[in-house]
Structures are given as C-alpha cells and as structure tokens.
Amino acid sequence: MANIKTLEQKRQEALDKANRLQKQIEKQLNGQKFVLGGMLMKIAEEDPSRIPQILADIDKYVTRKADISRLESFKVEIGSKVAENNDQGHMS
C-alpha cells in the first residue's frame, strides 16, 4: 500500500511539474504574440502602404470570433489611414 501512495505522489509531482512547464510555455508564447502585435501596429503606423496587406492577413489568419471582435477598432483605424492616404494622393 505504501508503494502505491509513493507512486501516486510521484505521479502528482510529475503532473504539477508538467503544469508549471505548460504555464511557462504559454507565458513565453503570449509574450511573443504581444511583441509581434506591437510590431505590426508600428508597421501600419509608419508604412501605410502595407496596411492593405495587413488587413488581408487579419481577415485570412484571425478566425476566432473573440479575436475578430478585438481587432475591429484597429481595422477601422488603420483602414481610415488607407483612405486618408488615397485622398491625399488624389489631391496632388
């Protein structure tokens, strides 16, 4: 009986360690996503010619409803920059 308890304890310790490692992985991935998102926003701000491709990529690769909803205001904001640049180009 003691042997079973020892094995169960070892199993639980291994599961706890696996859970901690999974949280570390998720934290690292979330950090990478955060940095990449910031980079993409900076690109849209500094190079408006890339906005149409960014919008197309969002439509292609962002598929979760919650994520689509989160990006709606960003899409509107950068989409308006495309319109502004087009308007300025026609005025010259």
Provide a descriptive summary of the structure in words:
The protein is mainly alpha-helical and 92 residues long. It has two domains: 46 residues; 46 residues, no CATH class. Helix 2 runs antiparallel to helix 3. The radius of gyration is 23 Å and the shape is rod-shaped.
Distance between the termini: 87 Å
Helix run count = 3
Shape: rod-shaped
Structural Rg? 23 Å
| Major sheet | none
> Could you state the order of secondary-structure elements as H and E?
HHH
Average of per-residue pLDDT values: 91
Question: Approximately how much helix is present in the residues?
Answer: over 70%
Structural descriptors:
3 helices, 92 residues, mainly alpha, 2 domains
Short description:
This protein has 92 residues and is an all-alpha fold. It has helices at residues 2-46, 51-61, 65-91.
Ordered list of secondary-structure elements with their pairings:
Blueprint lengths: L1 H45 L4 H11 L3 H27 L1
